[in-house]
Amino acid sequence: MSQILLFRLEGTNYLDFLINILHIKHFYNSTTKLFVNLLKYFTGKQSLVVFSALTALSQAEIAPLRKPTVIQQMVSRHLKSAGWYAIKDAVEFYEHNA
After folding, report:
1. Taking a C-beta distance cutoff of 8 angstroms, is the pair 83, 38 a contact?
2. Are the beta carbons of 24 and 97 closer than 8 angstroms?
3. DSSP state of 58
4. How far apart are alpha carbons 66 and 59 in whole angstroms?
5. Helix (H, G, I), strand (E, B), or coil: what is residue 84?
6. Residue range 8-44, pLDDT digits in tens
């Protein structure tokens, strides 16, 4: 009876549940390592705009933060060259699945 309880949790296969948890943890660890590795190659401009975008500022709000001030299209260019849209997708996935 105790073995059944070990592998079953309210009708759910406990072993499959643990395996899924380990896969999710591995995914998050891998994603974090990838993100940190990408950060090493950001220029100063890319770092500023990506950090600002992570704080939920719009591109129009980020533009005046740059010195000298730039237009929104330049912020968009920096975000694109930094791979912002892939980073944004990973962050949103993590926020909704953590």
Report:
1. yes
2. yes
3. -
4. 11
5. helix
6. 444 455 555 555 666 667 777 777 777 777 878 888 8
